[in-house]
């Protein structure tokens, strides 16, 4: 047996061979194509089918979009230009409707010369939200975030400057009451005072104070009623208000649902389940048809405000469930650790539990926000002029009767940009907050 | 060292203990919360009572028995405008359930399909699936519904284009017509229907009885979804007067064998067929269980494929044959198609949009579920010598399902609730009948909205509890 090996000539190479290039099929684009697109019969088939689908879609959409007509003042004008330019039978977009009506789609019937105000309000929003979203910024900017809602309200609706200022003062009054109560009787009295005193202030003192200040020193800008609001501005206002208000409410509801206190627990569960079990559209109809039944006779407040309240309740129930998932995902040891350190409930929640639970819940929370923002389109059914409502009214004019796709595409792209960027932000945040190394 | 320096004072209960003693504090908080809650609720109720009095209204559900006075263009059960508001609400509720059921089924199929495609190793296919998912997830559902409705109403050929040389043609061997008034598909009808057949022979037998059942069966049961009735608000549907009988006689002439028995379908026929199908499936499952026992006892698995197929299919097939099943094809009549099932644009738009939109969410859930199964599981399966399809079926899917099912349930719930967007296209669902026309006609907003909310609430709770039962059965059993 071993003889056969003994007779073979041993050969040991003395020097290294130079590295040779990988074969053509194993490098660069060719390799990528082979591995990703043509690795087997099924894959080749899928690739061909996909290419066909892409070709069919693009060959219709691209010429329609690129060759679109921008300079016309009505749909018939568009068609005339199209026939003159490309001959009959060619389907191209009539972007002239966007060029003609983009202000309406963005701002509704907001006075034309005041367009700067909503834009400014949006900038204020971004300035206010920046310190919250990006932790690298100095913490003192958070005071600006606190002031932003009042500034935005004033910019959007206008009127006397004293209204928002006096209302904002209520927060300072609450903080003061907390300090006083805290020093006198401890945190519990401080907490109660911090809730009760500002409410009393807003109910009884704010109104006269605003009137008095406004009569002494009338500073203000032109008032714009809510009926003039519309388009994407309306979606943004409802969406942003709903998002900022529903997050704290949702966290409270989630804590209530986790609570051992029987009544608080059951009330939270009932609220969450009832709100979640019924479609938003039914709640919106409730807001527009029924809310007057539940309020003292004679009260009648803004439809937009009612919608914001309903949207907030709706989103907060969903956020409560998402946050509850985060709370449930925390190991029990975290709760026990908080107790072992001697922290009271509020502190252990604020310092230990919620930061971790909210981190887990971020994707769900952002998904809820995206859903809320998309759901703002439903207000069209109770008579508010959101982008879809405006597209209907644009289509109802004689100039643009029968135009569909250009408006849908415009609205769809704007919504897509907003929702997609929110989703990307949540992914980035998730990646940043992940602590374990995988 | 000195954990407790002094004993808590015995006996002397001070009022401040209610706040500072943890033994009593939770009670205090709850009592305060209860008082506030009761106060708030009584405030709302007293306001409502006052407001109702001021408007001169009472709180009464009697309107449900009054005649509705409006037509519903799509109905699964017999209904006309003389029937009560309660019946109209029931028709709407069934329509909601129909679109929710269709939507859930289609969304699941689409979602699984695109979820798997998004995981494909083929770069192009994965990107296409991602475009679908992101595109549908990030644009409001309402926009998709009205866009699809617009495609159907504006983009599809008119019925008259289906005439000779009109440029449009029917699909699938002249059986499906896609028109701008909706989609017409063949219907299955029975010549020996258990609900009785109308006979248009020279000598009709028992004309009264046969006549009523004929009409009743014409409007029944998943089979003939839309037959006649004036359109209420469905933009496109300026009603063709194709009523059930017309359609049936057209089909009868087609049949041309005797021209006497008008084929029809009734609930009973379908109940029999479906019942046999369900029985067959149960029997097949029992055979599978027997095969499993045998495999575990002897190590050999008997071949069950053909037995199971026979069990499931043969009995319903025999039933269909005995009942004299045949297709009722849509045929171009005067201005419109007669016969077959007319799926209205409103149903199509709502159904497609709901399924495409929810399908995008389901796709993400499916992808996440499959990715959640660690690679070691499939490697272990390969190490055991299982082939890829068995690995998928026996190892990956059962574990992935456990991750997939809970979020899937909530997507089904969302779809059901989103079906209330039917308002955008005039589909007559529960909100349009009970929460729309009925409220407008009777002025009973409070009662109507209450019932509507209750319906959706009960529906949600039922779906989620049913699904939770299923979820518990596939859940990982731990200590």
UniProtKB/TrEMBL annotation, chain A:
**Membrane-protein topology:** Multi-pass membrane protein
Q: GO biological process annotations for this chain's record? A: amino acid transport
InterPro entries in UniProt: AA_ABC_transptr_permease_3TM, ArtM/GltK/GlnP/TcyL/YhdX-like, MetI-like, MetI-like_sf
Q: Where are the transmembrane segments?
A: 41-66, 114-134, 162-180, 187-210, 230-255, 267-291, 303-323, 357-383, 403-423
Q: What SUPFAM superfamilies does the record tag this protein with? A: MetI-like
The cellular location(s) given in this protein's UniProt record come to: Cell inner membrane; Cell membrane
Q: Where does the record place the ABC transmembrane type-1 domain?
A: 232-426
Highest taxon, organism lineage = Bacteria
Could you give one GO CC term from the UniProt record? ATP-binding cassette (ABC) transporter complex
Give the matching CDD domains. Answer: TM_PBP2
Q: Which GO terms describe its molecular function?
A: transmembrane transporter activity
Q: List the keywords (alphabetical).
A: Cell membrane, Membrane, Transmembrane, Transmembrane helix, Transport
Asked if Transmembrane is a keyword of the record, the answer is: yes
Q: Give the family this protein belongs to, as stated in its UniProt record.
A: Belongs to the binding-protein-dependent transport system permease family. HisMQ subfamily.
In Swiss-Prot or TrEMBL terms, this protein is called: Amino acid ABC transporter permease
TrEMBL record, chain B:
The segment annotated Disordered runs over 227-258
Q: Which GO terms describe its molecular function?
A: transmembrane transporter activity
Cellular component terms (Gene Ontology) = ATP-binding cassette (ABC) transporter complex
UniProt topology in membrane: Multi-pass membrane protein
Name the major location.
membrane
PROSITE patterns membership: ABC_TM1 (PS50928)
From its record, what is one biological process in GO terms? amino acid transport
Lineage, top-rank taxon, reads: Bacteria
- Tell me where in this chain the ABC transmembrane type-1 domain is found: 93-467
Q: Where are the transmembrane segments?
A: 24-45, 88-117, 129-153, 267-284, 305-327, 347-373, 449-470
Q: Where in the cell is it found?
A: Cell inner membrane; Cell membrane
**InterPro entries according to UniProt:** AA_ABC_transptr_permease_3TM (IPR010065), ArtM/GltK/GlnP/TcyL/YhdX-like (IPR043429), MetI-like (IPR000515), MetI-like_sf (IPR035906)
Q: Which UniProt keywords apply?
A: Amino-acid transport, Cell membrane, Membrane, Transmembrane, Transmembrane helix, Transport
- Could you confirm whether the keyword Transmembrane helix appears in this record? yes
The similarity comment for this entry is: Belongs to the binding-protein-dependent transport system permease family. HisMQ subfamily.
State the protein's name. Answer: ABC transporter permease subunit
């Amino acid at each position: 047996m071993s003889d056969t090996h003994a007779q073979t000539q041993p050969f040991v190479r003395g020097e290294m061979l130079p590295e040779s290039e990988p074969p053509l099929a194993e490098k660069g684009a060719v390799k990528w194509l082979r591995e990703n697109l043509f690795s087997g019969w099924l894959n080749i088939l899928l690739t061909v089918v996909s290419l066909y689908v892409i070709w069919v879609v693009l060959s219709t959409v691209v010429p329609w979009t690129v060759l679109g007509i921008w300079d016309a003042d009505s749909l018939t004008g568009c068609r005339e230009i199209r026939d003159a330019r490309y001959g009959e039978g060619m389907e191209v977009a009539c972007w002239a409707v966007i060029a003609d009506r983009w202000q309406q789609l963005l701002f509704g019937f907001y006075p034309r010369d005041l367009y700067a105000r909503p834009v400014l309000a949006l900038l204020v929003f971004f300035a206010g939200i920046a310190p919250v979203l990006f932790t690298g910024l100095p913490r003192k900017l958070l005071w600006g975030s606190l002031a932003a809602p009042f500034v935005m309200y004033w910019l959007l609706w206008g009127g006397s400057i004293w209204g928002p200022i006096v209302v904002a003062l209520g927060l300072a009054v609450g903080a003061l009451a907390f300090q006083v109560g805290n020093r006198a009787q401890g945190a519990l009295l401080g907490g109660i005072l911090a809730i009760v005193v500002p409410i009393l202030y807003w109910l009884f003192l704010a109104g006269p104070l605003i009137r008095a200040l406004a009569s002494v020193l009338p500073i203000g800008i032109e008032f714009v009623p809510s009926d003039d609001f519309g388009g994407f501005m309306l979606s943004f206002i409802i969406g942003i208000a709903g998002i900022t208000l529903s997050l704290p409410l949702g966290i409270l509801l989630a804590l209530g649902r986790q609570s051992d206190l029987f009544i608080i627990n059951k009330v939270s569960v009932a609220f969450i389940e009832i709100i979640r079990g019924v479609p938003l559209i039914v709640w919106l109809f409730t807001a527009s048809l029924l809310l007057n039944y539940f309020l003292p006779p004679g009260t009648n407040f803004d439809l937009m405000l009612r919608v914001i309240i309903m949207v907030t309740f709706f989103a907060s129930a969903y956020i409560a469930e998402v946050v509850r998932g985060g709370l449930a995902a925390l190991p029990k040891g975290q709760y026990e650790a908080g107790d072992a350190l001697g922290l009271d409930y509020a502190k252990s929640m604020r310092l230990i539990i919620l930061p971790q639970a909210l981190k887990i819940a971020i994707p769900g929370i952002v998904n809820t926000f995206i859903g809320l923002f998309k759901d703002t389109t439903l207000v069209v059914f109770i008579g508010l002029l959101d982008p879809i409502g405006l597209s209907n009214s644009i289509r109802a004019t004689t100039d643009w009767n029968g135009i569909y796709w250009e408006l849908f595409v415009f609205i769809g792209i704007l919504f897509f940009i907003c929702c997609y960027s929110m989703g990307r932000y949540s992914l980035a945040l998730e990646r940043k907050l992940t602590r374990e190394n995988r | 060292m000195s954990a407790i320096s002094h004993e808590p004072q015995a006996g002397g209960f001070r009022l401040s203990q209610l706040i500072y003693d943890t033994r009593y504090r939770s009670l205090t908080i709850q009592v305060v919360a209860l008082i506030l809650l009761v106060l708030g609720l009584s405030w709302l109720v007293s306001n409502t009572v006052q407001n109702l009095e001021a408007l001169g209204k009472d709180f009464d559900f009697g309107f449900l028995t009054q005649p509705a006075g409006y037509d519903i263009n799509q109905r699964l059960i017999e209904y006309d405008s003389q029937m009560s508001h309660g019946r109209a609400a029931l028709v709407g509720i069934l329509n909601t359930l129909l679109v929710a059921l269709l939507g859930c089924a289609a969304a699941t199929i689409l979602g699984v399909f695109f979820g798997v495609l998004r995981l494909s190793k083929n770069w192009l296919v994965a990107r296409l699936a991602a475009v679908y998912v992101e595109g549908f997830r990030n644009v409001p559902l309402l926009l998709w519904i009205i866009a699809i409705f617009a495609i159907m109403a504006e983009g599809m050929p008119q019925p008259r284009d289906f005439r000779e040389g009109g440029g449009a043609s029917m699909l699938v061997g002249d059986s499906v017509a896609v028109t701008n008034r909706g989609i017409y598909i063949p219907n299955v009808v029975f010549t020996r229907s258990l609900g009785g057949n109308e006979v248009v022979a020279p000598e009709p037998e028992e004309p009264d009885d046969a006549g009523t059942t004929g009409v009743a069966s014409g409007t029944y049961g998943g089979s003939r979804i839309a037959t006649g009735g004036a359109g209420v608000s469905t933009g496109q549907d300026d009603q063709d007067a194709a009523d059930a009988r017309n359609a049936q006689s057209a089909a009868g002439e087609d049949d041309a064998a005797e021209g006497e028995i008008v084929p029809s379908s009734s609930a009973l026929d379908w109940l029999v067929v479906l019942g046999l199908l369900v029985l067959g499936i149960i029997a097949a499952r029992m055979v599978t269980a027997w095969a499993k026992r045998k495999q575990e006892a002897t190590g050999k698995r008997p071949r069950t494929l053909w037995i199971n197929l026979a069990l499931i299919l043969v009995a319903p097939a025999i039933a269909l044959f005995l009942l004299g099943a045949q297709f009722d094809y849509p045929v171009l009549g005067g201005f419109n198609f007669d016969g077959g099932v007319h799926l209205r644009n409103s149903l199509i738009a709502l159904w497609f949009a709901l399924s495409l939109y929810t399908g995008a969410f389901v796709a993400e859930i499916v992808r996440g579920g499959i990715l959640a199964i660690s690679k070691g599981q499939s490697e272990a399966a390969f190490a055991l010598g299982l082939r890829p399809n068995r690995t998928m079926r026996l190892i990956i899917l059962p574990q992935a399902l456990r991750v997939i099912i809970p979020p899937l349930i909530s997507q089904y719930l969302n779809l059901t609730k989103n079906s209330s967007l039917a308002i955008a296209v005039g589909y007559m669902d529960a909100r349009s009948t009970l929460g729309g026309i009925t409220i407008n006609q009777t002025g009973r907003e409070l009662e109507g909205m209450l019932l509507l909310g209750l319906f959706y609430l009960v529906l949600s709770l039922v779906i989620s509890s049913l699904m939770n039962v299923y979820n518990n059965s596939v859940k990982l059993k731990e200590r």
